[in-house]
Write a structure and sequence with these properties.
The chain is α/β, with parallel strands linked by helices and 190 residues long. The protein has a single domain (3-182), classed as 3-Layer(aba) Sandwich (Rossmann fold), CATH 3.40.50. It has helices at residues 8-18, 22-31, 65-72, 109-119, 136-151, 158-162; strands at 35-42, 54-62, 78-81, 94-100, 120-128, 166-172, 177-183. A 7-stranded mixed beta sheet has the order 3-2-1-4-5-7-6. Strand 6 and strand 7 (177-183) form a beta hairpin. It starts with 7 loop residues before the first helix and ends in a 7-residue tail after the last strand. Bound molecules: S-adenosylmethionine (SAM). S-adenosylmethionine is lined by residues 1, 5, 15, 42-46, 48-49, 61-64, 67, 83-85, 100-102, 105-106, 151.
């Protein structure tokens, strides 16, 4: 895991600075006014999403003890130290599972989403995507260069991701941010 995830305050600052606060605006646009029964945030980090989404029952899972310690002091959310690739929950334990800027940093993102689809009725993915018109090489340089050095990010394969369930896709800021909501099984023909 990247060193930045051992430093919650620094992560929080860089997340805002590197994205010019756009990352947080997208969190707000997608999650504000959304009310769910039970929510699992995978890679909960410092809990930025929890400021927006309304849920009766929330579990935050993360592999970083430092992130969980930081959040424990500031929130009453139930926290679980765990790995996104091996979720310790029974089938359909949650209404919604959320990956917010987490998937791009995972070793096997598609496997993590399969796990989330097993553990919940709906999966929401918020992450960076190549903006329309940006050359692939330039994007790869940014993601595999800067993003990878700081956050451990790689390019998310949104095409493969959308085939894991019935998908609805929304883009923000010229496509720099993509949100995919997955429900149940894929449509026939996908
Ligand atoms: C970029 S941060 C995003 C945090 C938060 N979702 C947000 O919106 O600010 C990614 C988080 O995923 C966690 N993480 C990385 N690998 C993980 C894994 N395999 N399982 C669970 N969490 C992981 C990191 O510790 C970090 O807190």
């Amino acid at each position: 895991m990247k060193w930045i995830y051992q430093h919650p305050r620094l992560y929080s600052l860089l997340d805002s600075v590197v994205s010019l606060s756009l990352a947080d605006r997208v969190r707000r646009k997608v999650l504000e006014k959304r009310i769910v029964g039970s929510l699992l945030e995978i890679g909960v980090g410092t809990g930025k999403c929890l400021n927006y989404i309304g849920a009766e029952f929330v579990v935050g899972l993360d592999r970083s003890e430092a992130m969980l310690d930081f959040l424990k002091k500031r929130s009453t959310t139930r926290l679980v130290l765990g790995d996104a690739h091996i979720l310790p929950f029974k089938g359909k334990s949650f209404d919604v599972a959320l990956f917010c800027y987490c998937l791009a940093g995972l070793r096997q993102p598609l496997e993590a989403v399969r796990q989330a689809l097993r553990a919940s009725k709906e999966v929401i993915v918020i992450d960076y995507n190549r903006p329309k018109g940006m050359p692939v090489r330039l994007w790869r340089w940014i993601v595999c260069g800067i993003g990878s050095i700081i956050f451990g990010s790689r390019d998310v394969d949104f095409v493969a991701l959308a085939k894991l369930g019935k998908a609805s896709v929304q883009d923000f800021y010229l496509g720099l941010y993509r949100v995919v909501v997955l429900n149940g099984a894929p449509d026939a023909g996908n």
